[in-house]
Amino acid sequence: MYEFTIIVPVYNEEDNLERVEQELVAYIQIAAKKTAILFVNDGSKDNSQILIEAICNRNEAFHYISFKENRGLSAAIKAGFDHVESPLLGYIDSDLQTAPEDFNKLLEYIGDYDLVTGVRADRKDSFVKNMSSRIANSIRRAFTHDGMDDTGCPLKVIKTDYAKRIPMFKGLHRFLPAMILLQHGKIIQIPVRHFPRIAGTAKFGLWNRLLGPLMDCFAYLWMKKKYINYEVKDQG
Q1: CATH number, position 117
Q2: Is 23 left (phi over 0), alpha (psi -120 to 50) or beta?
Q3: 3-state secondary structure labels for all residues of 105-140
Q4: Looking at the domain assignment, is residue 235 inside a domain?
């Protein structure tokens, strides 16, 4: 029985998948929890699906789901949440700009918290990308008061029960800590390493990093106002 499942969204990452396999296989050997991998192929148009199937065929702990068409990062993450069966889940990007080994750092804290997110120390991105992300995070904090410095960091550990109660909306991946707070959960951020992208191309431009999050903040405010939260006391 797996204790922890790492969700790996994939969209046109054929140049990265061999390295993804190598690093995740290596991580499984040292993981603090018995770990499975779940690829979510977000309608890739390259050879990603062929490579994913080959990886899963030769690694027992690797599994996949594949979308009929591209639906976006938030949909891929939510689909992963819906399909995970282990009590804990994690999330990492297939560009491997964060290190799987750092999941062990986050797992140290998950007993006392419901979401543990990485915060990228010494980011290895361009000036424009770093600055737009910094501005977007400031805007998001002003709306959500979640206290998080870097919700775009693609390294998180969440208790699965909490993750499955997060409703779907576009831009979801930027608001995971805030959505845990709406459930009265506890969150914390921990510094993790960051690396430059080696292969493939980034899927987010200036609109996605700056103007998109601003629009999503208004969706979050609507969600916060309408969010239903309950706890079952007893049943018979």
Answers
A1: 3.90.550.10
A2: alpha
A3: HHHCCCCCCCEEEEEECCCCCCHHHHHHHHHHHHHH
A4: no
Q: Give per-residue pLDDT as tens, 106-162.
A: 999 999 999 999 987 765 555 455 555 665 666 666 666 676 666 678 899 999 999
Q: Could you give the strand order of the β-sheet that contains 4-10, starting from the edge strand earlier in sequence?
A: 62-66, 35-41, 4-10, 88-92, 155-159, 115-120, 187-192
Judge whether 109 lies within some domain. Answer: yes
Query: Cα-Cα-Cα-Cα dihedral of 83, 221, 210, 151, to 10°?
Result: -50
Total domains, the chain: 1
pTM for the full model? 0.81
CA distances from 226 to 123, 167, 202 (A): 36, 11, 34
What number is the average pLDDT over the span 67-81? 94
Range of the domain at 64: 4-226
The CA–CA distances, whole Å, from 146 to 90, 156, 170, 230 equal: 19, 15, 19, 21
In a domain, 234, yes or no: no
In a domain, 51, yes or no: yes
Altogether, the residues listed in the chain come to a count of: 236
User: From the CA atom positions of the chain, what is the Rg in Å?
Assistant: 17
Give the list of residues 6+ apart from residue 90 with CB closer than 8 angstroms, or none.
Answer: 4, 5, 6, 7, 103, 106, 155, 156, 157, 158
- Asked whether 117 and 153 are in contact (CB, 8 A), the reply is yes
Structure token digits, residue 214? 């601003």
Question: Which amino acid is present at 136?
Answer: A
Is 177 in a helix, a strand, or coil? helix
